[in-house]
Specification:
With 456 residues, this protein is α+β, with helices and mostly antiparallel strands. It contains 16 helices and 16 strands. The strands form 4 sheets. Strands 1, 3, 4, 5, 6, 7, 8, 9, 15 and 16 form a 10-stranded mixed sheet that branches.
């Protein structure tokens, strides 16, 4: 006697009696699975992009906004700070700062943000890249893997940026040229277009007198006597005069990158005047001593800038999100409980109509245990189908959420991963189906054959 086959046929015989239980079960399991996936993937993305950054320094405003705009690129910047204010942190001799990565924000291309920064940003995220694929001079761009894939960009492509983070704002006249494409990193860098900070100054006409006119980056490096022991492939200590000629924003190919100070270096920024602006600085510390831990407070109290700790602000963000997540989890658990109760009531009601059927099974030789297991299998099948439908609903929800996030924030969620927590959820759901069928199964196994048959 194939009990599983009989149980399946009993469910199909009167499917309307279990439809409500199935739908409720699917909704409850689906909502819990959806929340588990979103919570896991969002936290994972935030953690991947922490990149060991200890402090973010920028204009006064919301600390969380500063973190989101500078590290995760999903909010508007709080404003700009002058290069003169940032200069002490860019100095490689700073006693507390190990790495300072300047960011200039405000432009985009087809919704993807263009970031004016130095090569040190690659060190933050552990990215290795050949020198010829790095943005060395103004108007050169290295594209992240995600933006290159989405916009079908390749090395040598030329484009014009838009002012702001949407395409409906006017474009700049200068051409930007793709010189390299990063490998996928599963970090925010995948969604960025990287260029030099001076590219922003030129496009916004902030520093023509410092970096030359009409794209000419001719500059004299005799003015500032800095001795930098900054071990970077393209940063050198020069006392030469260099004439870097550009035409329509393109670097003169006759100049070797090794013979110049790259515009994508802190050395170059330290030799510029203080009237230029950047958006923010990403800092990592040399150590976790008392002075380093108090650097943020000193900046906030003694300067016109703002310092924010990524760890503190992200924990604060997650604490705000936890309230809503817990409320949804409570609702999902309530739905699952009601669905389990619905399975119990549905099977109990069906049992009254099936007493004669069960009695005939006993007459034909079925034992009490077989009758018991028959009802248990029915509860298990309903729970299995409900769980399966619930997971399908959760992955469908993830797909649509991912599409929305990619459109609005250039972030995406994976709808194909199955976590350990979801595995526990699946087996818990099956266990609930067994529990819901337990009392009806016990009653069915205790059916008195003679009384049932005499009554019919």
């Amino acid at each position: 006697m194939n009990l599983f086959s009989i149980s399946w046929k009993n469910i199909l015989h009167k499917p309307t009696s279990v439809v409500l239980s199935l739908v409720l079960f699917a909704l409850g399991v689906g909502l819990i699975a959806f929340l588990l996936q979103v919570d896991k993937q969002v936290q994972q993305k935030f953690e991947n992009n922490l990149a060991g950054i200890d402090l973010v320094v920028g204009a006064k405003g919301s600390p969380l906004q500063l973190i989101l705009s500078s590290m995760y690129h999903i909010d508007a910047p709080t404003g700009n700070i002058s290069l003169e204010q940032a200069r002490p942190f860019l100095n490689p001799q700073h006693p507390l700062v190990d790495l300072a990565v300047p960011l200039s924000l405000g432009d985009s291309y087809k919704g993807y943000r263009i970031v004016g920064t130095t090569h040190d940003i690659l060190d933050l995220y552990g990215i290795q890249l050949p020198a010829e694929m790095m943005w060395q001079e103004n108007f050169e761009v290295t594209a992240g893997a995600g933006v290159a894939r989405k916009l079908n960009l390749s090395v040598g492509d030329v484009f014009q940026s838009s002012h702001g983070f949407t395409d409906d704002i006017h474009s700049h006249d200068q051409d930007l040229k793709i010189v390299g494409i990063l490998e996928p990193t599963n970090t925010v860098v995948d969604q960025l277009l990287l260029t030099t900070p001076a590219t922003f100054w030129k496009m916004h006409n902030h520093a023509e007198d410092e970096t030359g006119r009409n794209g000419d980056t001719g500059h004299n490096h005799n003015g500032n006597n800095h001795n930098h022991n900054h071990e970077h492939e393209h940063e050198h200590n020069h006392n030469h005069n260099h004439d870097h000629k550009h035409e329509n924003g393109n670097v003169d190919s006759m100049k070797s990158p090794e013979s110049i100070i790259s515009s994508a270096s802190n050395t170059f920024l330290l030799q510029q005047g203080g009237n230029q602006e950047i958006t923010s600085l990403l800092l990592t510390f040399k150590g976790r001593n008392f002075q380093a831990l108090n650097l943020g407070r000193n900046i906030n109290e003694n300067t016109d800038m703002q310092a924010a700790s990524p760890a503190i602000e992200i924990n604060r963000l997650f604490s705000l999100m936890d309230t809503g997540t817990q409320a949804l989890n409570t609702l999902a658990l309530a739905i699952v409980f009601v669905s389990g109760l619905s399975i119990f009531l549905a099977m109990l009601n069906k049992l009254r109509d099936r007493k004669l059927e069960l009695a005939y099974m006993r007459v034909k030789g079925a034992s009490r245990t077989q009758v018991f297991m028959l009802i248990i299998f029915e509860g298990l099948i309903i729970a299995f189908l409900g769980s399966l439908l619930g997971f399908l609903l959760s992955y469908g929800g993830l797909y649509f959420l991912s599409e929305s996030m990619e459109t609005n924030y250039n972030y995406s969620l994976s709808a194909g991963s199955f976590s350990k927590a979801e595995l526990y959820l699946f087996f818990s759901a099956l266990g609930l189906g067994v529990i819901a069928a337990l009392i009806p199964a016990i009653q069915a196994s205790k059916t008195d054959i003679s009384i049932t048959l005499e009554g019919n």
